[in-house]
Amino acid sequence: MVKEIISAAEENLKKSVEVVRKEFASLRAGRATPALVDKVTVSYYGTPTPLNQLANISVPEARTLLIQPWDKSAMPEIERAILKSDLGITPTSDGTVIRLTIPQLTQERRVELVKSVKKKAEEGRVAIRNVRRDINDTLKSKQKEGVPEDEVKRGQDDMQKLTDKYIKEIDEMVKTKEQEIMQV
Questions:
Q1: Which of 23-27, 62-66, 70-74, 165-169 has the lowest mean pLDDT?
Q2: Is there a smaller number of Cβ atoms within 10 Å at the N or the C end of the chain?
Q3: What fold does the segment set 2-25+106-182 form as a domain?
Q4: Cross-strand bridge partners of residue 69
Q5: 34-101 has which fold?
Q6: Per the database record, which ranges form the Ribosome recycling factor domain (predicted)?
Q7: What is the pLDDT of residues 139-177, one digit of tens each?
Q8: What does the pLDDT read at residue 68?
Q9: What are the φ/ψ torsions at residue 49 (nearest 5 degrees)?
C-alpha cells in the first residue's frame, strides 16, 4: 500500500521536472529553437490557437526562426501575436514566410535570464517539496488507520530519497541552462 502511494508520487515528481524542462526550453539563450514560440497563441478566426498548430516552424540558421503559415491569410494575426508575446523579437514578413531573427544577448539580458532560470527552478523545487509534504501527510494518516509505523517510516525515507533525486535533477538542469545562457 505504501509502495503504491510512493510510485504515484514519483509520477507527480517527474511531471514537476518536465514542467521545469519545458519552461527552460522556452527561454531564449541566443540560439533559435522552435520551443521559443511554444507559448505564442494566435487569434485564428476568433479562437486562441497555438502558433505551432497554424504553421511550420523551422531553424534555417543558428539565430533565425522561419515560420511558414499553412493559411497565408493568418499571417497578420501571427505577426500581431508574436509582437504581443514576451519574446521581444520583431517579426519580418515577405508575404509567404515570417522570419524571427534572434539578436545577440547583452550581458544584462543574460544576467536577467539566469535570474529567471533560477526563479523557475525554485518553483519546480517547491512543487516537488509540496508533493513530498502531501505524501508524508497521507502516510501519517495511513498510520492512524493501522499501517505499521516502520512501514510508514520507510515510505517517508523513500519519499525523501525521491525528493532529493528530482531536486538534484533540477539543479543540474539549472547549471546546464546557465552555462548555455552565459556562453558568448
A1: 23-27
A2: C
A3: Topoisomerase I; Chain A, domain 4 (1.10.132)
A4: 55
A5: Gyrase A; domain 2 (3.30.1360)
A6: 21-182
A7: 999 889 888 889 889 999 999 999 999 999 999 999 998
A8: 92
A9: -130, 135
- For 17-61, what is each residue's pLDDT tens digit? 999 988 887 776 667 778 888 888 898 888 899 988 889 999 988
CA distance 154 to 74: 57
Q: Which amino acid is at 37?
A: V
Asked if 2-25+106-182 and 34-101 have one fold, the answer is no
Query: Which amino acid appears at position 22 of this protein?
Result: K
How far is CA 151 from its chain centroid?
35
Helical H runs in the chain? 2-25, 75-84, 107-144, 149-182
Q: Of all helices (H) and strands (E), which one includes residue 43?
A: strand 41-44
Cβ(33)–Cβ(63) below 8 Å: no
CB contact at 8 A, 178 and 28? no
Where in the chain are the domains?
A: 2-25+106-182, 34-101
Residues in the chain: 184
pLDDT at residue 26, as a whole number:
73
Q: Which residues pair with 50 in a beta bridge?
A: 41
